[in-house]
Amino acid sequence: MQPTISLPIGYGKPKFNVGQRTQQGKIIGFEVLPLDSALAESCGSGYRYLVMNSRFSEDVKYLESHQITLLSPKEVEAEIMEEVDWYLTQLVLLQEELNADLKIQTPFGKVNPAISKSKRKRTNSGASRLSKPVKEKAAA
Questions:
Q1: pLDDT-derived band of residue 68, with 50, 70 and 90 as boundaries?
Q2: What is the CA 25 to chain-centroid distance, rounded?
Q3: Which of 41, 47, 103, 129 has the fewest CB atoms within 10 Å, measured from its CB?
């Protein structure tokens, strides 16, 4: 049985989905602001979205739909590859801690050893330990 959400009649479908990645962060929930509530007087009625800006912090913001900007498909892909790379790095570090070759299989192929054990800063290059290096031509 799949979980279902019942929305109040007259509010329509939410503009954004739970789990959707935006420039403000990842949408982790939403709430309905009833027309006749005190909260609706200050925030407006309709939907308000709960957005987590980083999986490494507890910062969560409530944003209205006009305050949210979607990522481009390329930005979404880069974020997902960065997240996959982060989890694969965790696997490699745990494997090293066990001091055993677990022969980790992924759809991407072999998992390369960790590059560094320090936390990486977010990059927009879209490069991952999974992606092939980009060869650039040098001027002669």
A1: very high
A2: 7
A3: 103
